[in-house]
Write a structure and sequence with these properties.
It is a single chain. The protein is of the alpha+beta class. The chain is built from 17 helices and 27 strands. The chain has an 8-stranded mixed sheet, with helices on both faces. Strands 3-2-1-6-17 form a 5-stranded mixed sheet, sandwiched between helices. The longest helix is centred in the last third of the chain and has 26 residues.
Length: 530
């Protein structure tokens, strides 16, 4: 069974063609990039035409490379970035550039709504927060949340706002462009924090819609991630190089499918993801929240189940930054010798090379500690002003120490998130590690040592969200339970055990790491607050 999945990330789409049979086979993939445009007012926007061109380019490339007849493809779906805002007219056309999840232009709108009130929790009105928590165990506690993007357009671009037909997330827009049908999947509706998760009441909550002063006419029909939306339109098929009427499923967000692609579909299963962003997630058959640590149970693709999800906004992005700004001047000759033009291959080759270099530095990075908050932070503290720090650089330290410190800092923050999760739920002793970060054996062992847990990795760790989406589509076509399909087809390929000889040094650095935000919060605010 051939299924095509679009793994639609922050800066690129990877189009993946899978064959689902007795195992999950990645037949072929192709990556195409698009821009992320940051502005001084906190904006982070993208371009729908760049998105569509990337989809078309990568789809044509996959079909050409694999030689698979498009008539053999039985289904397709999107596994996409979440908490964006795409405002469309009644034809599904975007009325303005989409706002990425990193966009925080709506800070003023957020503060004016949530910052008022005599009694506050985490800087938010207790009254409004409690109303949200009663409905969906979540709350809009960050200026990056979608409702403030929506409200910013209402307040700052009234001529555009009056043309709005529906308010979509990224994946919903792409589904609409493929099918001509404007819907929202349940997981993207939940990400607005206007969705009721109570059994029998699932859907838009009228009270919250009114409280946030959202126009109910802008809210689309909600479907499940596992539902088939419709067939691929003739125009979309022509653009993509596919055939008309391929079934397009609802799909959903990256966080929605990664647990399925990781094989973590039994309650209590925990996985860690490191891509551009990072997270710790535990699969649950109930919903809970830790409002102080900004952790909540987000909807799973499987109805009635939740992913207890703690996020680090810049994980792999930190290593990408350090490669570009600290490493390339040292290894430029090496990259020239590779003569690699493909962006992904070039990135992975450099990642492998740097992993080898980092492995020459002892655990603890010779005392250097890095904080991975390059675009603020959300969990376990919300602060858009927070920034990255290289702490304790001394005369004896070099760039390799700093490179290792970046990876260790990411792992320290993931340990912090895991410990926060354990205050509310029981996490699994064995943790599945997925995403691009899991391609490095050095990083895998480092994570195992810092967490003190057994780590398992999988085949195709970068495509794990796409694999989850493919399994959902396959389960829908076959009429079987997606959890059973995931558990039967997704198996570990490598296991890492903690080296407790490194525990003392890692524990010492982690304890210092935990103190760095509190010690520098005032300085971050003084320098970075608007």
């Amino acid at each position: 069974m051939y299924i095509i999945i679009y793994d639609f990330g922050t800066s690129c789409v990877k189009t993946c063609l899978f064959n689902i049979d007795s195992e999950v086979e990645l037949v072929g993939g192709s990556t195409s990039e698009y821009g992320l445009y940051l502005s001084e007012n906190g904006g982070a926007e993208q371009d729908t035409e760049e998105w569509w061109q990337a989809l078309c380019t990568s789809t044509h490339d996959v079909i050409k490379k694999t030689g698979v007849d498009p008539n053999e493809i039985e289904g397709m779906a999107f596994c996409s970035q979440m908490q964006g805002t795409v405002l469309v007219d009644d034809k599904g056309n975007a009325l303005r550039p989409p706002m990425n999840y990193l966009d925080q232009k709506g800070y003023k709108e957020y503060k004016e709504c949530m910052g008022r009130g005599i009694i506050k929790v985490s800087g938010c009105s207790l009254y409004k927060l409690v109303r949200n928590l009663l409905v969906n165990y979540a709350g809009s506690t960050s200026a990056k949340d979608p409702v403030w993007k929506y409200k910013w357009v209402e307040n700052n671009e009234p001529n555009i706002f009056k043309k709005v037909y529906k308010w979509l997330d990224v994946g919903d827009y792409l589904v609409s462009r493929c099918t001509g049908k404007i819907i929202r999947t349940a997981d993207s509706a939940f990400a607005t924090f206007l969705y009721d998760t109570h059994k029998g009441k699932e859907g838009w909550n009228k009270g919250l819609v009114k409280m946030y002063k959202v126009d109910p006419n802008h809210l689309p029909e909600i479907i499940e991630c596992t539902d088939m939306v419709g067939g691929l339109t003739e125009k979309a098929a022509r653009d993509l190089g596919l055939v008309k009427d391929i079934p397009v499923f609802g799909g959903g967000g990256d966080t929605t499918f990664v647990n399925i692609g990781a094989g973590c579909t039994s309650p209590g299963d925990t996985h860690i993801y490191v891509g551009t962003s990072g997270w710790v997630s535990t699969f649950l058959d109930y919903q809970t929240v830790d409002i102080n640590a900004m952790i909540t149970g987000v909807l799973s693709a499987k109805r009635g189940y939740f992913n207890y999800y703690a996020e680090l906004e810049t994980a792999g992005k930190c290593f990408e930054w350090v490669m570009e700004h600290l490493a390339l001047d040292e290894v430029g000759v090496y990259m020239d010798q590779l003569k690699i033009t493909d962006v992904e291959s070039r990135y992975m080759s450099l990642y492998e090379y740097l992993s080898d270099e980092i492995n020459k530095v002892p655990p603890g990075a010779n005392g250097v500690i890095f904080t991975p908050w390059l675009h603020g932070n959300r969990c376990p503290f919300e602060d858009s002003n927070a920034g990255g720090i290289f702490f304790n650089i001394r005369v004896c330290n070099g760039k390799r120490d700093m490179l290792r410190a970046v990876l260790e800092g990411i792992c320290y923050h993931l340990r912090w998130l895991l410990e926060c999760e354990e205050k509310k739920v029981k996490t699994s002793e064995t943790i599945r590690f997925v995403g691009g970060g899991a391609l490095s054996e050095v990083t895998c062992q480092m994570l195992s040592d810092i967490l003190g847990r057994k780590i398992e990795t999988l085949n195709y760790p970068q495509e794990v969200g796409a694999i989850g989406a493919a399994l959902v589509v396959a389960a829908g076509i076959k009429g079987v339970d997606v959890s059973e399909l995931s558990q039967s087809l997704v198996k570990p390929n490598n296991t890492y055990f903690p080296n407790f000889e490194n525990k003392e040094i890692y524990d010492r650095n982690y304890n210092v790491f935990r103190k760095l935000y509190k010690a520098n919060a005032a300085g971050f605010k003084e320098i970075n607050s608007r």
